[in-house]
Design brief:
It catalyses: uridine(746) in 23S rRNA = pseudouridine(746) in 23S rRNA; uridine(32) in tRNA = pseudouridine(32) in tRNA. Helices cover about 15% and strands about 30% of the residues. It has about 220 residues and is α+β, with helices and mostly antiparallel strands. The chain folds into two domains: about 80 residues, Pseudouridine synthase; about 100 residues, Pseudouridine synthase (2-Layer Sandwich).
């Protein structure tokens, strides 16, 4: 028996969401869709983690391709390209920060200020991958703007507008603000984790230039929590 194989940890199998993907907008060049919570954006490495948003969409739209991603635990709106020129055009918009996105999040505690921003650089925490960390030496610029929508006795609902698109940016910035997102199993403390059955983070809107017509295209996708 190969000792190296015997010592490998078992593969991490992600949950398989049975919730359908909603088509919010459709034309011959792109889709706006709602990704369910607990559905990968792209296939995982393990064969049992092949089920994901893009493989499901390709059953009906064979030319569909991923332009950006949402985390497994995050639900909400995504744009999907249906041809190569549209994919290239939309990708450039993301790279040039011309795509405007908003998210809703429910966070721990009462956020005192009505609006503000978190401007802290983010780097990969290589010893604890896939976790990220704030690092002023090696981190990349990361900016999140926020606005309080509602306050409860022990939580606040925020509208988040990421200017940059770093991995786990909203989760780690809310933690650094002192108000981790409820249900976050990566960056929230135990009290905040226990206050929700899922990560309360949802992509609510997306605004971009249509790759063919040049018109402003805006999609809306209200949170269901």
């Amino acid at each position: 028996m190969n000792d190296n194989l015997a010592q490998e940890p078992p593969p991490y199998l992600v949950p398989h969401s049975q919730e359908p993907i909603a088509i919010l907008y459709r034309d011959e060049h792109l889709l706006l869709v709602r990704k369910p919570h607990l559905l990968l954006s792209i296939p995982g490495r393990h064969p049992l983690n092949r089920d994901c948003l893009i493989t499901r969409l390709q059953q009906d739209f064979p030319t569909a391709s991923i332009v950006h991603r949402l985390d497994l635990d995050t639900s909400g709106i995504m744009v999907i390209a249906l041809d190569k020129p549209s994919h290239a055009h939309i990708s450039r918009q993301f790279q040039q920060r011309r795509v405007h996105k908003t998210y809703e999040a429910v966070v721990y505690g009462r956020v005192a200020v009505g609006r503000g921003e978190v401007n802290l650089p983010i780097a990969c925490d290589w010893e604890r991958r896939p976790l990220q960390k704030i690092c002023h030496q090696s981190g990349r610029e990361a900016l999140t703007r926020f606005e309080v929508m509602e306050r409860g006795s022990d939580r606040s609902r925020l509208l988040l507008a990421p200017v940059t698109g770093r991995s786990h940016q909203l989760r780690i910035h809310m933690r650094e603000l002192g108000h981790p997102i409820l249900g976050c199993d990566m960056y929230a403390h135990e009290a905040a984790l226990a206050m929700a059955p899922r990560l309360l983070l949802h992509a609510t809107s997306l605004e971009l230039q249509h790759p063919v017509t040049g018109e402003l295209l805006r999609g809306e996708c209200p949170a269901d929590f």
